[in-house]
Automatic annotation (TrEMBL):
Gene3D superfamilies: 3.30.450.180, lambda repressor-like DNA-binding domains. Residues 30-81 form the HTH cro/C1-type domain. The lineage of its organism: Bacteria, Bacillati, Actinomycetota, Actinomycetes, Micromonosporales. SUPFAM superfamilies: lambda repressor-like DNA-binding domains. This is Helix-turn-helix domain-containing protein.
Length: 283
């Protein structure tokens, strides 16, 4: 690992990122236009001490999950993200080389009180806001297909129970498959879509059964009732916005009025919960 180069690169990207671009309030006087170290640490869900040590070239070897969280916090491009991974001695993560849609990205970080993410049309997450990372852990920059939501649904029972605890998972699975069928056709059955379908068929008999039923529909999202171990029940309305240009999707989970969810979501980001002493993003 090239510690000094990694630290220098992180510092320069932090100095170049304005609070507005990071989705943070810009009030108050600042000595420099960029973010403070504690702001980057908070966005990445790392302890301030850990992040300071990384910038100073004295930190421990960061994990791939930590690098994914930092890439999202610093709003790195695909090329910049790959560079950070290589500086830290990791292979650049596999996945789409897509730059997040700027309009959808602005909406994502402009809705800081609602957990949200930005994904490509195949379901691979390209960006998350801080609250989404705090609730569900980092999805961006993960190896292989781990950052793909369709893949996660059909390969991780734990993920299903997180999103729909004790629920009937069949409708959500069918919705994912029907949307993927529609997207595969829209993409002209390109290599990326067909490879994802082939891999899903290989690992999930349930996916293969649903795929062979040949249902097609646009992506939709049902109301979520999530139980977080830190703050309790969260009642969330799901909203999806799709860009006609990039075909990327923004998904926001809006707190339902009258349920106390908005206050509990603020508790998820309270300082004593977001300071992770060992430097690993909380999942």
């Amino acid at each position: 690992m090239t510690r000094a180069e990694l630290g220098d690169f992180l510092r320069r990207r932090r100095d170049a990122l304005t609070p507005a671009a990071a989705g943070l309030p810009g009030g108050g006087r600042r000595r420099a236009p960029g973010l403070r170290r504690d702001e980057v640490a908070s966005l990445a869900h790392l302890s301030v001490t850990y992040y300071e040590r990384l910038e100073q070239g004295r930190g421990p070897h960061p994990s791939a999950a930590t690098l994914a969280a930092l890439s999202g916090a610093l709003r790195l491009t695909g090329d910049e993200r790959d560079h950070v991974y290589r500086l830290a001695g990791h292979a650049a993560p596999a996945g789409p080389d897509e730059t997040p849609d700027p309009g959808l990205l602005a909406l994502l970080h402009g809705n800081a009180s609602a957990p949200g993410y930005l994904a490509d049309d195949l379901g691979t997450v390209l960006a998350q806001n801080a609250l989404n990372v705090a609730l569900f852990g980092p999805f961006t920059g993960l190896p292989g297909r781990d950052g793909n939501l369709v893949w996660r649904w059909f390969t991780s029972p734990q993920w299903r129970d997180t999103l729909e605890p004790g629920g009937d998972h069949e409708p959500t699975g069918r919705a994912y498959v029907a949307d993927l069928r529609a997207v595969t056709a829209q993409r002209g059955h390109d290599e990326a879509a067909l490879a994802l379908v082939e891999d899903l068929r290989a690992v999930s008999a349930e996916f293969a059964r649903m795929w062979d039923e040949h249902h097609v529909s646009a992506l939709h999202c049902a109301t979520k009732h999530i139980v977080d171990r830190r703050v309790g029940r969260l009642d969330l309305d799901c909203v999806v916005v799709t860009s006609p240009h990039s075909r990327q999707r923004l998904l926001l989970l809006l707190p339902m009025a009258g349920t106390g969810t908005e206050a509990r979501l603020r508790g998820v980001l309270s300082p004593h919960r977001r300071d992770v002493a060992d430097g690993r993003p909380r999942s």
